[in-house]
């Protein structure tokens, strides 16, 4: 624990100046590598002279690092670091915080200039020491001077990239804490275009060094393939080295800012038809933020057609389901009318049986004459009950099929709910993106004015999309409730159908018994009296069953009416979806 405490105590929090110093070490290393590669491969000097050159270079860098740097980039970064410490302690008001934020945006360009001046001055001292103490030729001196200038350019560009990372890290929290945007617009922290920097600090110097080196070899000796193969090989190696440096710098620019600025320019020209080229260029950090926001906006816009196509397909499926429910509604009404007609026929036949039975007992002499008529009536009633039984079975199958279809509809509604959730996430993302774009456009000042208008319109579109999604979710919830009611009604209808089937089976059993009684050819008076009592019981049972069946059909009719209202509601929703109102 004591060791851990000591380690924690020794741990020092890195300041802005410390981080800039750590990132700045890359400039020294890469610049030294470029200079020494050119000297080692393209200047014909001995290893002893190379050792002196190494000593002169180290001396020059140390002189400027310890005697000039403290008054240039070190002093500049120290001032910003002290201001950042005061800001963290809460000692800066909004005006000073705004000034600090602006200074962090200007810092990468200032550091680039300081690094270029320092390395250029150190290179000049190094060249003079090399010329006077080693005694190189004037041509080699000019070549070495060009190489040092080129290396200084590269160091400045790398300093721009590395300092941009650190400054962006500290600038964002200051902006989030609150700054004066009006004051920010009046500050001139834009600097020159990075595209121009890329041309000035890499392409043009590298091409110039290439041409000068080739001229150097032409002056030193004739480059003939059969006489100076070694010189020709070094020339090829030189061009390859320059190519590697150019490709590396191109990739560095491509991964940092050049490509992002091109994306922002293309997006603004495409959206607002305005020219992005102006005297004020967007700063590096701000351009990266705007380009990232524009990329998210374009990516979201590209996803909309696919989502709308899926939404359209879901709408067509809802329309098909609505058509199916309409068809089922008409079939259900037809079945209900058939059931009522069957019940009416059964009641009429039972009345006929009662009349025939009364006539049978009133006129025993004509009993056998009416026997055939009674048997025919019983057969007809038997057929009607069988038909009702089959109809009940068909209703059961249709109800089961309708229940499955409505459950499929629930699954599709779940899919629509997922789509609306996705649209909600996209709308939220667009709102956040549009809000960030407005902030970044405000930071961009006059250059971001058109982009601010576009971001505002995109945010309004996101709000409209969110309102439409909320309305769609409410309608989907209504449809979900409707489908649950439909399933409940179908289940009730199934129970009613089962009860109807049970009652019809009882009627069928009773009619079978009546049919057996009707087959008697000779009946004694006591048997006729018992038969009369039994037949009266059968008639009463049939009447009771038909009344109960009629009651069940009335309940089914009420459920069908509720289902009809739900189907009409679902149909209106489908029409709204088809018209694009939802």
Provide a brief overview of the structure.
With 582 residues, the chain is mainly alpha-helical. The chain has helices spanning 2-10, 16-42, 47-67, 73-88, 94-133, 138-177, 181-186, 194-220, 229-256, 258-272, 284-362, 367-444, 449-518, 525-579. The protein is rod-shaped, with a radius of gyration of 47 Å.
Question: Mind explaining what this structure looks like?
Answer:
- It is a single chain.
- With 582 residues, this protein is mainly alpha-helical.
- The protein has 2 domains: 9-187, no CATH class; 293-579, Orthogonal Bundle (Helix Hairpins).
- The protein is 88% helix and 0% strand.
- It has 14 helices and no strands.
- α10 crosses α11 (284-362).
Write the layout of secondary structure elements.
Blueprint: H1 2-10, H2 16-42, H3 47-67, H4 73-88, H5 94-133, H6 138-177, H7 181-186, H8 194-220, H9 229-256, H10 258-272, H11 284-362, H12 367-444, H13 449-518, H14 525-579
Helix pairs in contact: 2-4, 2-6, 3-5, 4-5, 5-6, 6-8, 8-9, 10-11, 11-12, 11-14, 12-13, 13-14
Strand content: under 5%
Q: From the alpha-carbon coordinates, what is the Rg to the nearest angstrom?
A: 47 Å
Distance between the termini: 65 Å
Q: Tell me the series of helices and strands, N- to C-terminal.
A: HHHHHHHHHHHHHH
- The beta-strand count equals 0
What percentage of residues falls in helices of 4 or more residues?
over 70%
> What is the total number of structural domains?
2
Overall geometric form: rod-shaped
CATH class call of the largest domain: Mainly Alpha
CATH topology of the largest domain: Helix Hairpins
Low-confidence stretches: 1-10, 185-192, 222-230, 255-289, 521-525
- Overall average pLDDT: 66
Largest beta-sheet details: none
- Please identify the structural class as seen in this structure: mainly alpha
Tally the helices: what do you get?
Answer: 14
CATH architecture identity of the largest domain: Orthogonal Bundle
């Amino acid at each position: 624990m004591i060791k851990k405490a000591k380690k924690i105590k020794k741990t020092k929090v890195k300041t802005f100046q410390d981080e800039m110093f750590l990132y700045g070490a890359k400039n020294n290393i890469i610049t030294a590598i470029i200079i020494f590669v050119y000297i080692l491969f393209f200047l014909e000097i001995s290893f002893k002279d190379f050792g002196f050159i190494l000593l002169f270079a180290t001396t020059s860098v140390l002189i400027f690092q310890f005697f000039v740097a403290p008054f240039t980039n070190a002093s500049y970064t120290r001032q910003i670091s002290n201001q950042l410490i005061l800001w963290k302690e809460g000692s800066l008001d909004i005006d000073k915080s705004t000034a600090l934020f602006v200074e962090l945006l200007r810092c990468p360009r200032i550091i680039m200039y300081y690094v270029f001046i320092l390395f250029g001055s150190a290179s000049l001292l190094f060249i003079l020491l090399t010329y006077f103490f080693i005694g190189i030729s004037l041509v080699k001196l000019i070549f070495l001077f060009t190489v040092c200038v080129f290396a200084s350019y590269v160091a400045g560009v790398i300093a721009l990239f590395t300092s941009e990372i650190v400054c962006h890290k500290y600038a964002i929290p200051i902006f989030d804490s609150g700054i004066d945007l009006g004051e920010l617009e009046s500050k001139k922290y834009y600097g020159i275009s990075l595209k121009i920097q890329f041309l000035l600090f890499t392409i043009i110097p590298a091409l110039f060094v290439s041409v000068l080196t080739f001229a150097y070899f032409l002056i030193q000796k004739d480059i003939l393939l059969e006489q100076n193969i070694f010189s020709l090989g070094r020339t090829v190696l030189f061009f390859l080295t320059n190519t590697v440096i150019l490709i590396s710098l191109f990739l560095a620019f491509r991964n940092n800012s050049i490509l992002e600025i091109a994306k922002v320019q293309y997006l603004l020209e495409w959206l607002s038809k305005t020219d992005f080229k102006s005297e004020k260029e967007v700063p590096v950090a701000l351009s990266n933020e705007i380009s990232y926001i524009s990329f998210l906006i374009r990516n979201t816009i590209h996803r909309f057609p696919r989502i709308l196509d899926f939404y359209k397909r879901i709408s067509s499926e809802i329309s098909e389901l609505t058509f199916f429910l309409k068809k089922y509604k008409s079939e259900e009404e037809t079945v209900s009318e058939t059931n009522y007609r069957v019940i009416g026929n059964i009641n009429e036949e039972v009345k006929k049986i009662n009349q025939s039975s009364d006539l049978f007992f009133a006129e025993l002499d004509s009993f056998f004459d009416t026997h055939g008529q009674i048997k025919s009536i019983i057969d007809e009633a038997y057929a009607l009950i069988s038909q009702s039984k089959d109809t009940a079975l068909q209703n059961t199958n249709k109800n089961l099929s309708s229940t499955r279809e409505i459950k499929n509809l629930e699954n599709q509604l779940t899919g629509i709910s997922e789509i609306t959730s996705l649209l909600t996430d996209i709308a939220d993302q667009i709102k956040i993106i549009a809000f960030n774009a407005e902030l970044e456009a405000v930071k961009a000042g006059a250059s971001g004015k058109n982009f601010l208008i576009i971001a505002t319109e995109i945010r309004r579109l996101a709000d409209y999309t969110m309102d439409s999604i909320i309305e769609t979710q409410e309608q989907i919830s209504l449809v979900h409730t409707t489908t649950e009611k439909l399933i409940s009604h179908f289940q009730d209808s199934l129970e009613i159908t089962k009860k109807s089937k049970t009652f019809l089976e009882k009627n069928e059993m009773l009619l079978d018994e009546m049919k057996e009684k009707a087959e008697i050819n000779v009946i004694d008076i006591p048997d006729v009296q018992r038969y009369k009592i039994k037949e009266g019981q059968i008639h009463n049972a049939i009447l009771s069953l038909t009344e109960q069946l009629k009651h069940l059909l009335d309940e089914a009719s009420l459920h069908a009416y509720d289902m009809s209202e739900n189907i009409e509601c679902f149909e209106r929703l489908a029409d709204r979806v088809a018209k694009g109102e939802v």
